[in-house]
Write a structure and sequence with these properties.
By secondary structure, this protein is of the alpha/beta class. The strands form three sheets. The protein has a seven-stranded parallel beta sheet with strand order 2-1-3-4-5-9-12, with helices on both faces. A three-stranded mixed beta sheet has the order 6-7-11. Helix 1 crosses helix 6 and helix 3 runs parallel beside helix 4. It is globular.
């Protein structure tokens, strides 16, 4: 683990994952530079980036896009990867660490395909890069449920998943970012929850009074990937609680 005097930047510091990373790093005594558009730093345009990275040794990229649109997300991640490498190299950053999604190798469309492009764009830059792949966050379930609401009922994708709490994922991300002995090659590390779940069952736990069913567009090319376990962790993944039910009880 690095010394407490290390200066670490967290991109997407106000997001579901970034806010926990900032809290964990500060709790461990590190000097943290939180970076987000609301704090005057825009990784997509590069505005404020070089100035904010002065003295920073490690950049944790926990950023996301406000839209799941593939093209918009791809443009954002491509530009941000380029800008982080360019600004980081100017500022003397030692490495970039980013979070991605388990199973993105199989996707050619949608947000997951954009994350795959991000992984590639980051790996092609001049700075050393580490990537941690995570399962869907527990905090993602309410969002998906809201997307599928139709009056007094709701519909969610037929999806197998092994969700993890954002706090748990942030703990794994911070440990990975600060580990001087983390392997530079081999399969990308993964963090997931303790057990496989079906999205519809998680949604029913969240709102037991609401009628919730599985449904999907038959023309959606990602339907089979969501349903066949593509998003489940690999055998080498780190699994950690709480389960979704335990997380709900603790809220």
């Amino acid at each position: 683990m690095m010394q407490a005097s290390t200066k670490i930047a967290v991109v997407g510091a106000t997001g579901r994952l970034g806010m926990h990373a900032v809290d964990l790093l500060r709790g461990a005594g590190h000097e943290v530079v939180p970076m987000s558009r609301s704090q005057g730093v825009d990784v997509a345009t590069g505005d404020g980036l070089v100035e904010s990275l002065q003295g920073v040794k490690v950049v944790i990229d926990a950023s996301s896009t406000p839209t799941p649109d593939q093209q918009a997300a791809t443009d954002f991640f491509t530009r941000s990867a380029r800008n982080l490498h360019e600004a980081g190299q100017q500022a003397g950053v030692e490495r970039l660490v980013a979070v991605s999604i388990i199973g993105v190798d199989a996707f050619d469309t949608g947000y997951n395909a954009a994350k795959r492009v991000q992984e590639q764009a980051l790996s092609e830059g001049p700075l050393p890069v580490r990537i941690l792949r995570a399962a869907q966050f527990h905090e993602f379930i309410p969002v998906v449920l809201d997307w599928g609401r139709q009056g007094d009922e709701a519909y969610v994708w037929p999806m197998r998943t092994q969700p993890v709490a954002a706090r748990t994922a942030a703990e794994a991300l911070v440990d990975f970012a600060l580990d001087p002995d983390a392997p530079a090659d081999g399969p990308l590390p993964e963090i997931a929850g303790p057990r496989e779940e079906r999205l519809v069952e998680l949604a029913r736990l969240l709102e037991p009074q609401l009628r919730i069913e599985e449904a999907a567009d038959a023309d959606d090319p990602t339907l089979e990937l969501y349903a066949d376990g593509t998003l489940l962790p690999s055998p080498h993944a780190k699994l950690a609680g709480p389960t979704f039910a335990e997380w709900l009880q603790s809220r």
